[in-house]
Specification:
Layout lengths: L4 E9 L7 E8 L2 E6 L8 E4 L3 E6 L9 E6 L4 E6 L2 H17 L18 H13 L1 H10 L7 H6 L2 H4 L19 E4 L5 E4 L4 H10 L1 H10 L6 H17 L2 H10 L1 H7 L3 H12 L38 H4 L2 H14 L10 H17 L7 H12 L21 H17 L10 H18 L8 H19 L16 H23 L6 H15 L1 H10 L6 H29 L6 E3 L11 E2 L3 H14 L4 H12 L6 H5 L11 E2 L17 H9 L4 E2 L2 H5 L9 E2 L1 H4 L3 H8 E2 L17 H4 L8 E7 L5 E4 L6 E5 L4 E6 L18 E2 L12 E6 L3 H4 L1 E9 L34 E9 L20 E7 L10 E3 L6 E4 L22 E5 L7 H7 L23 E4 L4 E6 L7 E5 L5 E6 L11 E2 L2 E2 L18 E2 L2 E4 H4 L8 E2 L16 E5 L5 E6 L7 E6 L1 E3 L21 E6 L5 E5 L2 E5 L46
Parallel strand pairs: 12-15, 16-40
Antiparallel strand pairs: 1-2, 1-7, 2-3, 3-4, 5-6, 6-7, 8-9, 10-11, 10-34, 13-14, 16-43, 17-18, 18-19, 19-20, 21-22, 22-23, 23-24, 25-26, 26-27, 27-28, 29-30, 30-31, 31-35, 32-33, 36-37, 37-38, 38-39, 41-42, 42-43
């Protein structure tokens, strides 16, 4: 369906009973055209849209065909019968948009009521409201006609405006899931109350209404059945909605239980106040006296500040409650209490929720449990700060109002904080206060922070003078206190600012009301809303830049809460999508799953396997044949091809695509898929009761119609059922046939390996790290182990030139700080994703506290991990924790150049120490750092600390950071007090989705564990979920792992795929059954590469994504430090996690800029030690060896054959076109500049 027309095959019918004329229906913005397939037929139609006044349609899932009935102005109609309901939906939406654009607002059913049919009076009312309210009309055009919201969604939040009896009823609370009853009066004496509850809605009612939660625990099942309880609850809600106080009093007098819901419960008020206090005051979108930015009827204030209605108006509660309800619901969503029980058991849910609240309130109070207390405090720190502000700071709400009011309220709060209710007297002049402040600072430097930093009277005086200066001189914005910043803005700017605020409120209403996402409909809606919110950011920045410089700061203050409200929503969206999206790279578990019997590569861990078991139990299926099929369907989540089975790119599915009889004979799936599995499911299960059926939650627009249902309750026939859930395995697609997906042998075979790798030598220097310049140029940063970083220019391939580097002029020289030894030195460097804007770069190195005073930190061997440093022996002449691992931040901002691409050197002055930790031994420190391409967090690879066989078993100790990969947020720097309280190792904070939230034993910094010495990791440029790390082995095996969140990679229980014998270690090993270890995906035995010495050390590399050598494309390259050997790992099938490795021969091009030295009796180049790999902005791969720098060339340069070379359209293993994203760009949206001083 294009934006300006839609074309579908259909039958045109003059009446319902008419068999119809087959043809093609084409709708444009002006006309409806129907052309019969048979030119001789008389059913040709050409009607202008201006004659169409409305539409009706049949219900999906009914026994009627998909009909669309368009009514015209003469009360006639045009009936079209479509091939399926999807075509009907497309045409219905198109008609609705055209009618709305022409002023005739058409109906569209809401998700909660697919059968909504609007009367002529309802249509007229909507049209009237749009004509009378220009702002409402503007919002309708902005969001409905553009497809962000449907008609039903838009009007669902304005039912009060549509209700003729609005003055007699209370507005239904917005931001609350659709759990309210559908009230229908049957006659003048009684009210019939009907309701439909899902487990998610019940849980949400408990979370948002503590009084209901407490009443449920008290009354069910001791005093009443669960059904009776909910009947009384909704009866009370109905009485509340009528605002009939006499009826409420009478009912309460007669019914003790009902009175619980009718009275003004102190529990509700108390809990609500607590929850509201946790919401960031910058998101308080309620209009306060003096605010002049709001103008919707919802706020009761016009743009000129005049009240629209008296305060005792029946609309008042509605007008002033919407933004608060958005905030309150957002807080509940973000609070996100998780109950580890089946949702279908309401009693168990209520009790589990009560336990979680009790645990939350008492957490940290237990004496002696310092680790739990630390985790609690860390989790508090990692809450989304945009919606959850500090509880201890006496801040005034920052709402959009005159800036002077804000400063005045801040000053008043400061006085209250320091002196209680008493007015403080301060006679200091500004000069005296400033002098006293300097004196206090000097005392701090000399004596520390034992006493208050600044005396209260001094701070208040300075604050008062600064406030006065800001509000009355440089930024004076009005002649009298009533004049607002808006009064000085150009009319167009003012209108745009007001409309942006209104638009944001509209989007946030719908966004927060859509959580938690439980249906495909909500999934699609939230995506639409997120896209719309993302488009507002550049508009706000453009708006700030358009105002005069003298008031830009005030406009920034107006825009700031808009930014923060959007940030909170989008960050929550990204966090939620990351959890539900995404099938990450499959893993190979060393221990089989207990419920889903899948072996080899799987997409489930043991926790997810347990959740599937609980879900299966909750379905309560009595028929064994049906139960067996349903179990296999649930376990399809664990199949290595689950991403294809669920096809999550297009929609959120609860059930995999089930194979039916239309499977193509050309399918890539084996013959096992060519069964009619969908029909088999229907035959075995169509008449079986299924509790919380996954079919019910996916079908019918995502609405769970009944908690227990049969397939025949929802679908009339097998054909209708398989039309909803069936699919063919053709065109490369995959379907589920009842067991693990098996591909044809021809498809599963890996493509033939390349003939070899062709190299050219472009430099003689020996380097440990290479990072492409973030500006996207042909320059790279190179560093050596001794501590120097250089900026070098990479020559064009075939130019005959060498690497452009000036050894005597390093970009950064850290040799005075770095301790350089066999396994110590400058181990890694990384540039901030926004380096071009902020100039931040980071270095990971080792230091010696004996030689450098700046080398000081906590020892990793400590009582928290059960280690005593005094009992460790010296290692290579060094005492335990003499050497430290450090991450330090540096900056280019100390230079005078504003264009960071022109900076060629910086001073070795640390801006900030990110991390410092003492090391128990002198080896196995990893040390690489890199930024995640999607999340923007810093990943830090750390080895087990050294010693043969990890003698202290640090790698499996979840309270130690040794043998781990860490994930740190270096953009949110906590205060020194917070760092000390949380026991952090430096200036960083914890990403809110690190795995410690699921595994309470883990330190919050840890992303993955069980490593010996991870040596070179990388993210695949085309598939960022593929995070591969090489891990150096002990005596037998070198491995490459796909690293996933919370993954345990086995050391020292395993060395590669083999059990490790640690009987000589002082600390006992864990059993192989006690950990869910993940097998490596590639690797080799020591004896395979060095049969004489047996030594080996793997060097991790990259997925090859350059087009220089098409036969290497999509393969993972890795090497051995000692052996001059390079392997290419090929994944087959793509996405399976199954790799086969091939050692490739090496040649050096005859025209290499620097001639290569050959091995004795061989044409292969003598590379020496292969330290690392590098990648430039063209995606070319480089080898950093002891003998120099080598670049991989096209195979023909060394007379290797590759059929794909010089062919523009090839399809290599896993080939996809190169990404259009600029190298170095940060995919996570940076926060906008909030304060823009002229």
């Amino acid at each position: 369906m294009a934006g300006g027309h839609v074309t579908k095959r259909a039958k045109y019918k003059t009446t319902i009973k008419d068999p119809g004329t087959p043809g093609t229906l084409r709708m444009t913005l002006e006309k409806i055209l129907f052309v019969p397939h048979n030119p001789k037929s008389a059913g040709k139609l050409d009607v202008e849209f201006r004659f169409i006044k409305g539409q009706k349609h049949t219900k999906e899932g009914s026994n009627k065909p998909p009909w669309l009935n368009l009514t015209n102005n003469q009360n006639g109609s045009f009936i079209f019968e479509f091939e399926n309901f999807s075509d009907l939906q497309d045409c219905r939406d198109f008609v609705g948009k055209v009618l709305a654009k022409s002023g005739e607002v058409s109906e569209k059913p809401s998700a909660a009521n697919p059968d909504e049919q609007l009367s002529a009076a309802d249509l007229e009312l909507r049209i009237k409201l749009l004509r009378e309210d220009s702002e409402l009309q503007k919002l309708h055009k902005q969001f409905v006609l553009s497809g962000v919201l449907t008609e039903a969604e838009f009007w669902a939040t304005r039912k009060k405006l549509l209700d003729k009896e609005a003055s007699k009823k209370t507005k239904q609370r917005l931001g609350f899931k659709s759990a309210m009853p559908d009230n229908k009066s049957t006659d003048g004496r009684t009210n019939k109350v009907t309701f439909s509850l899902t487990p998610e809605i019940i849980l949400q009612i408990f979370a948002e209404k503590p009084a209901v939660h407490r009443a449920f625990l008290t009354y069910v099942p001791k005093k009443m059945a669960e059904k009776d309880f909910w009947t009384k609850y909704f009866k009370a809600e109905y009485i509340h909605s009528t605002r009939n106080s006499h009826a409420a009093a009478a009912e309460a007098a007669e019914d003790e239980e009902l009175a619980v819901f009718l009275k003004q419960d102190d529990i509700v008020a108390s809990e609500a106040r607590k929850k509201i206090r946790r919401v960031d005051p910058t998101l308080d979108m309620e209009a306060d006296e003096g605010d002049d930015y709001t103008h919707l009827p919802d706020h009761g204030i016009f743009r000129d500040g005049i009240k629209e209605m008296p305060t005792d108006s029946p609309y008042e509660q509605y007008r002033r409650s919407i933004p608060k309800e958005i905030n309150r619901h957002a807080a509940v969503v973000l609070e996100g209490r998780v109950v580890d029980v089946e949702l279908e058991d309401t009693k168990a849910v209520a009790e589990a929720l009560a336990r979680s609240k009790q645990e939350s309130s008492t957490k940290g109070e237990a004496n002696g449990d310092t680790s739990l207390d630390r985790l609690h405090r860390v989790s508090r720190m990692t809450e989304i700060e945009d919606l959850q502000g500090p509880n201890h700071l006496p801040l005034a709400p920052l709402s959009i109002k005159d800036a002077r009011d804000y400063f005045d309220s801040q000053q008043a709060n400061a006085f209250r904080t320091s002196g209680g209710a008493e007015q403080m007297e301060c006679s200091l002049s500004m000069q005296e206060a400033y002098g006293s402040l300097r004196e206090s600072i000097s005392m701090i430097k000399a004596m520390g922070l034992k006493d208050p930093i600044v005396k209260p009277e001094v701070a208040n005086q300075v604050f008062d003078d600064l406030t006065h200066s800001i509000t009355t001189t440089k930024h004076h914005i009005g002649k009298n206190p009533q004049e607002s910043i808006l009064d000085r803005l150009p009319k167009k700017t003012k209108e745009d600012l007001l409309h942006h605020w209104t638009s944001i409120i509209e989007l946030l209403r719908h966004f927060w009301a859509s959580y938690p996402i439980t249906t495909p409909y909500l999934y699609t809606k939230v995506n639409r809303l997120k896209d719309a919110m993302s488009q507002i950011y550049p508009q706000l920045e453009e708006l700030k830049g358009s105002v005069p410089s003298d008031i830009r700061h005030q406009v920034s203050l107006l825009v700031r809460p808009m930014h923060q409200a959007l940030d909170a929503a989008i960050q929550h969206y990204e966090s939620d999508m990351q959890k539900r999206s995404a099938r990450e790279a499959p893993i190979t578990s060393k221990t089989p799953l207990s419920f889903c019997q899948y072996n080899g590569s799987v997409c489930c861990n043991s926790s997810e396997d347990s959740q599937l078991r609980n879900q299966f139990k909750s379905m309560n299926v009595s028929d064994s044949a049906c139960a067996s099929l349903l179990k296999s369907i649930l376990c399809a989540r664990c199949d290595q091809f689950s991403a294809e089975l669920y096809r999550i790119e297009s929609e959120l599915r609860a059930v995999p695509v089930l194979c039916n009889s239309s499977v193509s004979t050309s399918s890539s799936q084996s013959q096992v898929a060519k069964v009619d599995f969908c029909s088999n499911v229907w035959d075995k299960c169509h008449n079986v009761s299924i509790a919380s059926s996954p079919f019910a939650s996916q079908g019918k627009g995502g609405i769970l119609i009944n908690s227990t249902s049969k397939l025949t309750d929802l679908w009339q026939s097998k054909a209708a059922f398989c039309d909803e859930f069936g699919g063919a395995s053709d065109d490369g697609a995959t379907c589920f046939a009842g067991g693990p997906v098996i591909l044809n042998s021809s498809e599963s075979l890996a493509p033939p390996p390349p003939s070899g790798i062709c190299l050219e030598k472009i430099g003689n220097g020996s380097y440990l790290n290479m990072v492409a310049h973030p500006d996207g140029s042909n320059r790279v940063f190179l560093s050596n182990q001794a501590g120097k970083i250089w900026l070098a220019t990479v020559p064009e391939e075939g130019s005959g030139q060498v690497l452009g580097i000036v050894e005597s002029n390093p970009f950064l020289d850290l040799t005075d700080e770095v301790h350089y030894d066999a396994e110590l030195g400058l181990m890694g460097m990384a540039f901030h994703p926004n380096f071009q804007e902020n100039g931040r770069l980071f270095a990971s190195f080792n230091c010696d506290k004996v030689q450098w005073p700046g080398c000081s930190g906590r020892c990793s061997c400590n009582t928290d991990v059960g280690c005593d440093p005094s009992k460790l022996v010296s290692h290579n002449g060094a005492q335990p924790c003499q050497y430290h691992s450090v991450i330090a931040e540096f900056t280019t901002n100390s230079t005078t150049t504003t264009n960071l691409s022109l900076v060629t050197s910086i001073r070795p002055v640390e801006v900030r120490r990110i991390f410092t930790m003492g090391l128990p031994f002198t080896s196995h420190h990893g040390g690489q750092i890199l930024f995640g391409p999607e999340d923007g967090y810093l990943y830090f690879m750390m080895g087990d600390g050294g010693g043969i066989g990890d003698p202290q078993n640090f790698s499996q100790n979840k309270k130690s950071l040794l043998g781990k990969i860490m994930r740190l947020d270096i953009d949110s720097i906590p205060s020194a007090t917070t760092i000390t309280e949380l026991g952090l190792w430096g200036n960083y904070s914890i990403p809110k989705d690190n795995p410690y939230l699921e595994d309470k034993e883990l330190l919050p910094e840890i992303w993955a564990l069980g490593f010996r010495n991870p040596w070179r990791c990388s993210f695949d440029l085309e598939r960022p979920t593929y995070f591969l790390c090489a891990d150096v082995g002990q005596d037998q095996y070198e491995e490459v792992d796909i690293v996933t969140k919370g993954g345990n990679y086995g050391w020292r229980v395993f060395e590669g795929p083999f059990l490790y014998n640690s009987s000589n270690s002082p600390v006992a090993n864990k059993s192989s059954n006690s950990i869910n270890a993940i097998l490596p995906v590639m690797g080799y035995n020591h004896s395979d590469v060095n049969r004489v010495e047996g030594s080996a050390s793997v060097t991790g590399g990259y997925f090859y994504r350059s087009l220089t050598d098409p036969c290497l494309y999509g393969r993972y390259l890795y090497a051995d430090l000692y052996a001059d050997a390079i392997w290419a790992g090929t994944e087959s099938p793509k996405g399976s996690g199954n790799f086969s490795s091939t050692q490739l021969p090496l040649k050096c091009a005859h025209d290499s800029p620097i001639q290569c030295t050959s091995k004795p009796d061989s044409t292969s180049p003598a590379l020496g030690f292969i330290f690392s790999f590098g990648q430039d902005n063209k995606k070319n791969i480089f080898i950093l060896a002891s003998s120099g720098v080598y670049r991989i060339l096209g195979p023909s340069r060394c007379n290797y054959t590759c059929s794909r070379e010089n062919v523009t359209d090839f399809n290599g293993p896993g080939f996809v076109p190169p990404s259009s994203l600029a190298v170095g760009s940060k995919l996570r949206r940076p926060l906008g500049v909030l304060l823009d001083f002229p």
